[in-house]
Amino acid sequence: MKNNHIQHLLEINLAMLFIATSGALGRYVQLPVTVTIGIRAILAFVALLFYCKWKGFSLKIDKKDALVIFLSGLLMGVHWITYFYALKLSNVAIGMLSIFTYPVITAFLEPFLLKTKFQLVHLLLAVLVLTGMYFLSPTLDFENKYTIAIGFGVLSALAYSLRNIMMKKKVSKYNGSMLMTYQTAIVGLVLFPFMFSVPFEAILNQWEVLVALAILTTAIGHTMFLMTFKHFNITTVSILSSVQPVYGILIGALFLSEIPKGTTILGGLLILSSVVIESIRSKRAT
């Protein structure tokens, strides 16, 4: 049991490392957000479909689950689009940190939507995460475009929280790769018309970044993350995943030279402390 718990914690951290590449990649790609997300979803769908066929995963779903999976796919699209707008209007730190209001949102929504018991410790840890994010942010000038970026980030967080809660009961029934196959298909289908808003040459010139977003961030990262829902409640998952901005800011510093300040390091330590506390607490609960 102990080894399994450590393995699950390592899995969620590896998933967060893959997903954290979205910050630097999202800042680097030079295409309209809707085009970027649409191509990302389509490429990820193709990769996941081949993977499911190779592994022999069934793609059949019950009719009663179709609406939930469809709505969760739309929410995933809203999450990605608003998140990338937050990145475009600010930087990796602001973009990633603003969406990590979602542990707080999840802590409040999960007891009502999944009928789970409200735990005060989750609220306290979520507050610790928010405090860390306050210090992580290098600048918060509400008189410029960062205000809009943060607004997009919070909207992204709400969509992400709702999607995760909706998927909680489905991951025990369906394979995570299969669920992500459907979700990327839905996002790709909805955004497909936007593909014609830019010249094909512009898309071709960005193919390396788009493939990286599709494979590393989406097909691998989000599928691994979805699979961790089996082992923790959604609020615990959201708090554990708060290590993602730390990974993202480090990646941004390495590849985009967005060097964090001292307050950013302090915020990262606060976020990591909440992850350690929840890791220990969730281990004792198993």
TrEMBL record:
Keyword Plastid: no
All residue ranges annotated as the EamA domain in the record: 14-136, 148-277
Keyword check for Transmembrane helix: yes
Keywords: Membrane, Transmembrane, Transmembrane helix
Organism: Maribacter ulvicola
Spans traversing the lipid bilayer: 12-29, 35-54, 66-86, 92-113, 120-140, 146-166, 178-197, 209-229, 236-256, 262-280
Protein name: Threonine/homoserine efflux transporter RhtA
Stored InterPro entries: EamA_dom (IPR000620), EmrE-like (IPR037185)
GO cellular component, one term: membrane
